[in-house]
Amino acid sequence: MSIIYMLLxxxxxxxLLFFVLFIISVKxxxxxxxxxxxxxxxxxxxxxxxxxxxxxxxxK
Length: 60
Hints:
Layout: H1 2-27, H2 36-39
């Protein structure tokens, strides 16, 4: 029974260690996306069709 308590304690310590390392890596900017903004200008934008107004078409 004592091995279960030891394994539980070790797993909590390992989980906390990974959590602290994750927080440190996020704060240091490791997950910042530096590639996408530079290639975003290469993608085509959606074409917006202007609405046709009835007043623009006048018959003479």
